[in-house]
Specification:
Length: 697
């Protein structure tokens, strides 16, 4: 029998699932990846983890450094030695710094591997560029800009959220724009939600499409027009008010501003009560369904209303998030086990202590909103941005696929004088870079992973790196050496020595045991954000001006938007009558793995359209269609489904673009159609507020 070694691993990807997995290695090759027996039965990985070796062993994996020889985007590169590539990259960066200052370099990416204490494309690149003299830094990320922006106004903290285990106490779960079965947010949520359903807990899924979560045997799907969540939430609150189901003693004790919200809901000032009938016109959801939902929510306690991040990747997404918080408060659920989190359930609560790479932060770095990076490159100081950007450092990002408005992104990459990329694959972004440095994948190096939940994971080196690939850390060390700051960058430590130091700085008491089991569990697995405040609001006031939950916020009003959360959405346009949603796919993480055949085959890319919309346009199932938005054009197959509501179409995000000579995308890259005009005031992503028209090709 061949010997099989088992090594704990975990993906280090942006789904934050933090799944404890085991790589089974035979003869130096991973033969399978399974769930770890050392976690609880609720901690379950997904296909992306179980099949991750397909990406590591992919035939198109980059194994040698490359220098561009053809035009940007042409894909013409030559293989070079590491010395040549690193000398070239160092010389390019030096020239940019001497000519324009290091702040003319922008860092794009980070999410590729973003959970590692050491191997982290975010923190390593930031450290490197900060130590080189600073760079143009982006703020408010693609994922949760609106949520992160509003949460401190309401709660005075970002420490909100729940541990998945608290859902065992819920009597009702409302997944509002959250497709937990696919996007997960933590490796325990899918199992917890499935279990709740089996135990008879109603699960309501509010989503323009019948997602896999909505298809759970015990779930009920409530369709909603994209970007209109605030209106439906307001009408739920209207019903709660009408039916005397608002928890006034709770509001009195813990919150301020409800009187102002109430005025908005009742239409005291604008003569428009926010009734379910009013919401039906905006959301396309029958008023009767909204009333049923409100009735259930009003009388079932505790109830967990979990907003997905989708609701806030919309024009006015800030208000959807705030209104979700109002509903959670009005029903007295915040801070209670089985109740709500307060806000977003993702990444809010503190994780066990552990050392991690210091980014050597420079508060003086010029800042631009991440969502506007191509605009900042194209417009520069003349357009009101703080810098004229001359170089891109891309590590762990594929923004020519993932950034909104792909054609604009291409123009931006064409404008810079120099670009460096660390990658596994020849992504569309890598194709536009001057030098590509091939990096290791998670199973080829050791790390400690933060999970967003109350545990740390150990991810061991299961296999040797293929070809000439190097760790991102080592690549940065070599560059720092050439640029004269290796000593400060590495502090004289190897990757293994950093890991030991981080472990020594951590809550982990037995590092050897941790390396064997792969999991360190914090004490409390039933945490509920804000529970200290709820237990004793006088002793533990919030860091808001009033010390309470601010359902209307005068401080927020200083942004120029109303203190009270109120519905505002994208205006309709006759020329583009359909609303496009671009959700996250099950079989990839953003665009990662979209080039791997096994994953790709499982979710063939096609535009989902309701048969009623298709009929109006003479479109039949499997037809080729042209999808147009003000930003771009795409040719793609259509699949007719009742499970996308009329008036909305759906295209899973994360497919790499493939443009023909006229600039029409033939692959189905969602961001051909999206815009970089952000939602304000957070200046964040609005990838889910997109208007399109579809016609037969
Ligand atoms: N499998 C997988 N998991 C992931 C990721 C991935 O790419 N793949 N990405 C990770 C990352 S980086 C992030 S930020 C999160 C993203 O997490 P989310 O933002 O929550 O994910 P989405 O898929 O965009 O949206 C969730 C659901 O909301 C629906 N939806 C879209 N627009 C609206 C709307 O306006 N209103 C309502 N009510 N629903 C709407 C979508 O159809 C989808 O079913 O997921 C993480 N997890
Ligand atoms: N239309 C639309 N667009 C969206 C979204 C949407 O919902 N709709 N969602 C947005 C969201 S929430 C996000 S977070 C962004 C994500 O967008 P990106 O941050 O661009 O994420 P990925 O597409 O996964 O690209 C990560 C890259 O890092 C590489 N990588 C992985 N591991 C490593 C490593 O260890 N080292 C190095 N050097 N590279 C590595 C991968 O090969 C991959 O090419 O997309 C956004 N774009
Ligand atoms: Mo994200």
């Amino acid at each position: 029998m061949p010997e099989i070694k088992t090594i704990p691993v975990s993906c280090n990807k942006d789904c934050a699932a933090g799944c404890p997995l085991i790589a089974h290695v035979e003869d130096g090759k991973i033969v399978k990846i399974t769930n770890s027996p050392n976690g609880t039965p609720y901690m379950q990985g997904c296909a992306k983890g179980f099949q991750a070796m397909r990406a590591a062993y992919a035939p198109d994996r980059l194994l040698k450094p490359l220098i561009r020889t053809g035009a940007r985007g042409s894909g013409d590169f030559k293989e070079v030695s590491w010395d040549e590539a690193l000398d070239y990259a160092a010389a390019g960066l030096r020239k940019i710094k001497e000519k324009f200052g290091s702040e003319s370099i922008i860092f794009l990416g980070g999410s590729g591997c973003c959970r590692g204490a050491l191997h982290n494309t975010g923190s390593l690149t930031q450290r490197f560029l900060n130590m080189y003299g600073g760079y143009t830094q982006t703020y408010s990320n693609y994922s949760s800009a609106a949520s992160d922006f509003v949460t401190p106004f309401v709660f005075g903290t970002l420490e909100v959220g729940i541990d998945a285990a608290t859902l065992q106490h819920s009597k009702l779960i409302i997944l509002w724009g959250a497709n937990i079965m696919d996007t997960r947010f933590g490796c325990e949520y899918p199992a917890r939600i499935r279990e709740a359903g089996k135990n008879g807990v109603p699960i309501i899924v509010i989503d323009p499409r019948k997602s896999r979560t909505a298809k759970l045997p015990d779930a009920e799907w409530l369709p909603i027009r994209p970007g209109t969540d605030t209106a439906m939430m307001a009408s739920v609150l209207y019903e709660l008010l009408k039916n005397n189901q608002v928890d006034y003693p709770y509001l009195e004790k813990y919150c301020t501003g409800f009187d102002q919200v109430e005025k908005y809901i009742l239409g005291t000032d604008d003569n428009q009560p926010k009734t379910p009938e009013w919401a039906e016109q905006i959301c396309g959801t029958p008023a009767a369904s909204i009333k049923k939902l409100a009735d259930l929510y009003g009388r079932t306690k505790p109830a967990a209303l979990i907003p997905g991040l989708s609701v806030q990747r919309n024009i006015g997404g800030e208000e959807a998030m705030r209104m979700a918080m109002v509903l959670q408060a009005a029903t007295g659920n915040i801070g209670k086990s089985g109740g709500a989190s307060g806000g977003c359930i993702w990444d809010g609560l503190p994780v066990p202590e552990c050392g991690c790479m210091d980014t050597a932060n420079r508060p003086e770095n010029p800042l631009i909103p991440e969502y506007r990076w191509p605009d900042a490159i194209l417009e520069g100081k003349n357009g009101g941005y703080p810098t004229d950007i001359k170089a891109v450092y891309n590590a762990g990002g594929n923004y020519l696929s993932q950034g909104s408005d792909i054609k604009k992104n291409m123009r931006a990459f064409n404008k810079v004088e120099f670009s460096v990329c660390h990658e596994h694959f020849m992504t569309p972004t890598a194709r536009y870079c001057d030098v590509i440095l091939p990096a290791t994948a998670f199973m080829e190096r050791e790390d400690i992973l933060f999970t967003g939940m109350n545990y740390l994971l150990y991810s061991g080196k299961a296999i040797d790196p293929p070809g000439d690939v190097k760790n991102d850390y080592d690549i940065f060390c070599e560059l720092a050496d050439r640029l004269g700051f290796l000593d400060v960058f590495s502090e004289g430590k190897t990757a293994a020595q950093w890991i030991e130091q981080f472990a020594a700085e951590s809550a982990i008491t037995d590092f050897e045991h941790f390396k064997q089991t792969g999991i360190y569990t914090g004490k409390d697995q039933m945490r509920i954000g804000l529970s200290d405040f709820i237990a004793d609001p006088k002793k533990n006031p919030l860091e808001t001006p009033s010390g309470k939950i601010e359902l209307a916020s005068e401080k927020y009003a200083e942004t120029g938007f109303p203190a009270v959360p109120a519905y505002r959405g994208m205006a309709d346009q006759k020329e583009y009558p359909l609303r496009l949603i671009t959700p996250h796919a099950l079989y990839r993480i953003n665009s990662s793995y979209s080039n791997i055949q096994w994953f790709r085959e499982r979710e063939p890319q096609a535009l989902w359209m309701n048969p009623a919309d298709a009929e109006k346009r003479g479109i039949q199932d499997a037809d080729k269609v042209i999808v147009r938005s003000p930003r771009g054009k795409m040719r793609i197959s259509v699949t007719l489904k009742e499970k996308i509501m009329p008036g909305a179409v759906c295209l899973l995000q994360g497919i790499w673009p493939n443009l023909d000579e006229l600039g029409t995308d033939l692959a189905g890259a969602a961001n051909m159609l999206t815009s970089t005009t952000p939602t304000e005031p957070c200046m964040g992503s609005r990838t889910h507020s997109v208007l399109v028209e579809v016609e037969r090709n």
